[in-house]
Design goal:
mainly alpha; 1 helix
Length: 75
């Protein structure tokens, strides 16, 4: 414990402020965790959207989804 010239040992030497600072920190960390949760949810949603668009998109480069080339149409 810090010793003051007056022999006051139970109080720290930093200027004492009301405890609203602690509550402010708590609210900040709460908001941060909410923000993180929303971030994770949007990332999950984005991944789900990517999967859906991948399934719905037409096959590219002339290949079917199975990986075999399309049969050419003979006339």
């Amino acid at each position: 414990p810090d010793q003051k010239p007056g022999g006051d040992t139970d109080k720290p030497t930093v200027p004492s402020e009301p405890d609203h600072n602690q509550e402010h920190d708590h609210n900040q960390s709460h908001n941060a965790s909410l923000r993180k949760q929303a971030e994770v949810n949007s990332l999950r949603q984005g991944a789900a959207n990517a999967q859906v668009t991948q399934m719905n998109r037409a096959s590219q480069d002339g290949f079917h989804a199975a990986g075999s080339p399309p049969v050419p149409v003979s006339r």
